[in-house]
Here is the input.
Amino acid sequence: PLVPKETPPSGINLTLAPTFLNLVTDPGEEVTSQIKVKNNNNFSEYLKIDIAKFESAEGGERPLISEFTSADDYKNWISFSDSQFILDPNETKVIDVTIRAPKEASLGYYYAIIVNRTTQQETVAQGAAVAGAASVLALLEVVSPNAKRELQLVDFKTSKLFYEYLPTEFQITAKNTGNIHIIPSGEIFIDSMRSKEIGTIKTNEGRGNVLPGTERVYTVSWSDGFAVKGVQEENGQVVKDKDGQAKLKTKFDFTKANKFRMGKYTASVLLVYDNGERDIPLEGTVAFWVIPWKMLLVGGVILIFAVLGVKNTVITNLKKIFGKR
Here is the structure.
């Protein structure tokens, strides 16, 4: 193995692209793709490629990476143009990834391609890759007449019913009841009590897959408004409270003064997936409220004082008029 002469002065810092590969091949055929590995450190890195398998964790947003077992013969289907290599500072290397599926293969196989230092022990922790390593997920579909592509919309909801200000957070839960991975896509359309489609939000722009027999939660936010609550920053750093949580701050965008959000809103999701023959739509609806109560309270107090001020002025003037008589 390639071994550096000196211990690296700092932790590994790599960029891998793309973040995942979606590959399709026929039984007995091979498919080839590429990944790019960039060394972001200012010293050379001695690197190797390891492989593991992955499945969906709870919620589906992150993978559970684990070691292959003796029953996982698909470990031997994958190969690389370079399994060990040296990357100079800021150098990028292109690695060819080839998977040859045997004639008896069918449906889905899921790899984690892990790039790490050659001196790192080859172990994979349950739920994550080797500490400090970078990885690319490869989803292989071997074409089969037995493929069943079926997705269900389990839930569509907001994180809460009432919001003081935007953003509103939507959660879309989809379940794959088929036997091959699926990439859903679609949009959320938002209506107010007075107008239709005042907002449109794309869903699953990262093209995240739902693995067979699992559920995945896609989170989308709507923040197109005059008043939006966001993370507070100072000098480019996130401000945190004593518990280490990010502090929030309401920001007012006067270029969007015509988008003052208040009242009841209805959101409708249209999720679409390909079942192999045509696009199948899935639909859901949820209602929520935006009530900027602090702003309304301040406005109410100002209005009360204004009314009282006018009233007192009128009374004073009347007393002066009738007092002179």
Notes: The chain has one helix and 22 strands. The radius of gyration is 28 Å. Helices lie at 293-324.
